[in-house]
Task: structure prediction
Amino acid sequence: MTSLPKTQRAWRVVTQGLPKDALRLVTDLPMPTQLEPGRVLVKVEAAALNPVGYKMMRLLPNFLAKRPVTAEQDFSGVIVNRNGTKWADGDAVFGLLGEGSMAEYIAISATQLAHRPTNITPIQASGLGVCTLTAYASLFKLGQLEEGQSVLINGGSTAVGAFATQLAKSKGAKVTAVASGKNEEWCRKLGADEFIDYTKVDIALYLSKNPPATKYHVILEAVGTADPSLYAQSEKYLQPGGVFVSVGPQPHGVRELPMFGRLLFNVLFPGWMGGVSRRWTLVTVHKDGEILEKISTLITEGKVKPIVDSVFEFEDALKAYDRLMTSRATGKVVVKVISDTE
Ligand SMILES: NC(=O)c1ccc[n+]([C@@H]2O[C@H](COP(=O)([O-])OP(=O)(O)OC[C@H]3O[C@@H](n4cnc5c(N)ncnc54)[C@H](OP(=O)(O)O)[C@@H]3O)[C@@H](O)[C@H]2O)c1
Result:
């Protein structure tokens, strides 16, 4: 085992607020000392941000979030203590944990990791965890999407939507992506067969008037919009047995709360009482190394490509949050934990 330092650098969430107020870069965080059985120690090379990170910083009061905690979930790195697990010291891995990837070393369950494909770099691998698992669960566990079927992805240029497009194509399904016009070519390069520009048309209205010849088998709402209209109108363009999967409606302030109420009504009440007679379901991330290994294989085979929007030095993590919070990133926003990482 490599000799390890006693303390490490980490970005810690110390209070509720925007990242610039909530985060501190510390240099004296104690190293994980005793590894419980089944856990390994990983030297982190790069960490990637997810919107849930800054949203929880803003929303959750300190007593609920049990702060201070180390920020973020996604990482790539190298095993430095296999601790009797199936892994070998020196294995290159990627994965996700509940929280704490923005540190030099992490202790993590051996089942929340996968081998980093040899055809991608640690930076490219660092953002695969949360988004690929979300996309995979949405399409295949909840949506039961099959070869030859079709999926509408609202948010084709979100990281979740971009991985969903590639996963759906790898299964042989047809993809219609919704994003702003400037991202059309980007979405098509990922595999989208059809494209709708949400800045030009109201999507629910457009699809109600122009439904696909064969209604969609799955709709993935990968933006997190609170607007319920895409689901409210979905009987017109989603198969009767189809599924509407949402990454979670996130109202922006109290003025959007009534929208949330409308969605709840549509979901909970049957069609004859004014609800929507299509299944609506919420996707959640399960930290599943077996699925990550499947993703790893698809990447090795060239069927799925990692997507990186931008890369920041560890000291510049606040700039990385600024980029993510524009809601305009196309791909993952990555922070290098080892500065000469590729
Ligand atoms: N439930 C879960 O377990 C789970 C897991 C992961 C993520 N999420 C949620 O999923 C959502 C997406 O996360 P992400 O990391 O993939 O986001 P992201 O990559 O940061 O999303 C950025 C993209 O959003 C697009 N966008 C912004 N507003 C849009 C709109 N109104 N319609 C269509 N596209 C829009 C932008 O494209 P344009 O410039 O073209 O608008 C931009 O490319 C977030 O709300 C996140 O919290 C949930």
Remarks:
- The radius of gyration is 21 Å.
